[in-house]
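RESIDUES AND SHAPES:
===
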Amino acid sequence: MVRISRATTVTAVIALLVAGLTACGSVAGSPVPGEIDVRTLAVGDFPVDRFSYPQEAGEHGPMLEGIRMSEAVATSSQVDPSLKFGRGSKVLPDTATAIDFLANVSEPILKNRKMLVGYMASGADRDDPEGGTRPNPDATAITLVALRFPDSASAGRAATELEAADIAVSPQNRPLKSAKFPGALVHWRPGVANIGAFLAHEEFVISLFVQRPKADSADLVSWVDKTLTAQLDRLDRFRPTPTADIADLPVDPENLLARVAVADREGQTPDPDRFAVYGPNYLIHDADDQVARTRLLEASGFESTAYADGSSVARVRDPAGAPVLVDGFIESAGAVYGPMPTPADIPGAKCLELNEKGDPQRQYRYRCFVPYKRYVGVVSSDDETEIEQKVSAQYALLANSL
């Protein structure tokens, strides 16, 4: 399912404006043969001129590196295809957030070793119980955390200290060994069906927690080995920004954020949920069916997506992939959404409306998908007029930006 929530940035798209609507804003640009004249579209107050955001990250450099690290953390289905239920992912911008996924006693260690940023992702072989935030007791579930430190020496010391602090939480905790990863620091509590591990790898510390249906130490260690194998493969393909260059990371180097239709362009700063650019892994981490989502992204040639104020724009390899991505998002929207009439003015746009199975307190009433060449805009709203304006504005902005 493509999750659309008022608390997240994952989707939102709404239908385009019909002729005769008032409050039409001025739209720059000239029509291209075979395309509509976007100057005629009613876009409300949404700015649709070609635009670029300031690129200086400043104090937000670590946040940008954390957003990049979504590609450095393995999805659960990359560990094992059975773990197809994404349980969420998160940038860890500071030590206070990081200890939500580590023992509370770990925070002084993270501060002392100068943790820069981190990223967490979790998945399982079955969905969480309805309304719950923990995995099903009979599930296999993994939580992976990658923590970034200034250098490999700091990471090595942090891993050793984090393991010592974790074991000391309970006198019943016992160390275990991995023959495949002798450098991994592994522990469990006999009789309890989970296991924890830390592994320093260059300037990173990998923190791993695995839950299994039965308390079998050999089985648990085998899952540590399997998970670390997938995780190290991701890290080895990821190019971390040198510590000295993190403050100079550009905010929107490919102008993808600038192609997302927003009501107000002022004051936008890097934020993992409200103003960020992600690669494919981010969409896989949070998917209800990671295997199906992976197939969709590969089939469409998906490259990256930008989120800004609840809307998004995805870029694919070539124009043929855009309708593939739209249809895939429509299919994965789930039973809570049904089709709604799509304005004929916007080529290829498709819209959905929340039905009686949905929850209007958590989900937007309307969402629409707007393809344009190599791009797909996703917008949402509870207001029919606004959704129409957003669809028009998104199409006009994409047309004017290229």
User: Anything to note?
Assistant: The longest strand covers residues 85-92.
